[in-house]
Amino acid sequence: MKKSEKPLFVQNLTEHLKTATSFVLVDYTGLTVKMQQELKKRLREIGADMSIVKNTLFKRAGVEAKVSEETLSDTVLSGPTALVITENDPIAPLQILHKFAKEFELPHFKVGIIDGSFRDKLALEKLATLPSKEILYAQTVGALASPMYGLVSTLQGNIQKLLYILKEKSRMTG
């Protein structure tokens, strides 16, 4: 990258960091070009983007975007770093990265910001194994609706018994 292009790159990256629902820094050491292309393709399908960033440029953009200090530390920003960023579902890119890492044992999480909160490597791995928001919503609705269905079926059973008794009574008297 030319020196004249760097300020514009930092400015664009700053805007992306400000509008993102989540971004994750990963160590992509060992990923072949073909593997990178496959990972980028999978991430694009869910509205996420992966790009390789220079640590110094990311740090500049991070400071301007007021990213947490833990994310910008020298221990995190060392070695090859790729940025996975999304403005959509904040957990979906983690799930894609996790599945990809299971298949190829690469890349490795560094740190990330999910819905405005700093997450370390361990927290990112835990979040990556969660079901999607839609599935969690469905499970919650199912858990809330289950007792109501039980109540309705119990009440229906009592009404059916009452009808049965009334029919039997009407046969005996009729």
From TrEMBL:
InterPro entries: Ribosomal_uL10, Ribosomal_uL10-like_sf, Ribosomal_uL10_bac, Ribosomal_uL10_bac_type. GO terms for cellular component: ribonucleoprotein complex; ribosome. Keywords: Ribonucleoprotein, Ribosomal protein, RNA-binding, rRNA-binding. It comes from the Bacteria. Pfam families: Ribosomal_L10. The keyword S-adenosyl-L-methionine does not apply. Forms part of the ribosomal stalk, playing a central role in the interaction of the ribosome with GTP-bound translation factors. NCBIfam families: PRK00099.1-1 (NF000955). PANTHER family: 39S RIBOSOMAL PROTEIN L10, MITOCHONDRIAL. This is Large ribosomal subunit protein uL10. The lineage of its organism: Bacteria, Candidatus Woeseibacteriota.
